Amino acid sequence: MNHGHFFNTRRQLLATACALVLASGAAMATDDPKVKFATTAGDFVIELYPDKAPKTVENFLRYVKDKHYDGTVFHRVIDNFMVQGGGFDTSYNQKPTRAPITHEGREALAKGGQKNIVGTVAMARTSDPNSASSQFFINVKDNAFLDPVLIPPGDPVPKFEYQGRVYENTPRANLMNAPQLYGYTVFGKVISGMDVINKIKSVPTGPGGPFPSDVPKTPVIVNSATLVK
Questions:
Q1: What are the residue ranges spanned by the domains of the chain?
Q2: Across the strands, what pairs with 31?
């Protein structure tokens, strides 16, 4: 046997195997919607999870399609916590929004959704769990304290543990409606450009507009947010 031919054949087999693996990976690639944010700090892409948080994703995509995020700033940046944007223009005027959406955090988790870990994207809100509209944040560390709390079965709930305390025979409605147990709805994750998010989280901050702190001294502006085809 010609040894050169043998090695060439083996290379061809290896190349074919690699091509099959790559093709398999491509076939397995998710078709979940993706949104590209082009910012003054660089670009990043968010993959959304409509199967886990359908109303939240639909709401977010409507803002994207309406160009709501174009020209907004990251107005709250806290290193070792999260970066938040989607609500204010470069003059720190709050942009008009649609009606708030229903909180989907528990439903998303129950369907196997993500928790508030590094790189995940969640809806910002006020103390009212059902107040999220356009603002979102990206976790830059694992923030377990932001996770929705799943309520065990039963009514009353026989046993419930939270922050080191044990509650017994608690009416289910009391737990379901406790504001501190709602957490924040994760609806996507940064799948490329996390280096840009890490760059944003590290910018110098201070007061800005109506905010006493945590505002980037050099604005980080979203030039465009577009659905990736």
A1: 1-30, 31-144+183-228, 149-178
A2: none
Task: Say which CATH class 31-144+183-228 falls into.
Answer: mainly beta
C-alpha Rg value of the chain to the nearest Å: 22
Residue range 63-98, pLDDT digits in tens? 999 999 999 999 999 999 999 999 999 999 999 999
Q: What angle do CA 194, 136, 222 make, to 5 degrees?
A: 65
Tokens of 4: 């050169």
Contact 154, 168 (CB under 8 A): no
Note the pLDDT of residue 26. Answer: 43
Nearest Cα to Cα of residue 216 among 128, 92, 53 = 92
- Band of pLDDT at residue 1, cut at 50, 70 and 90: very low
Sign of CA dihedral 115, 83, 45, 21: negative
Give me 47's structure tokens: 């993959």
Q: What is the pLDDT of residues 17-75, one digit of tens each?
A: 555 545 544 444 568 999 999 999 999 999 999 999 999 999 999 999 999 999 999 99
Cβ neighbours around 108 below 10 Å, total: 25
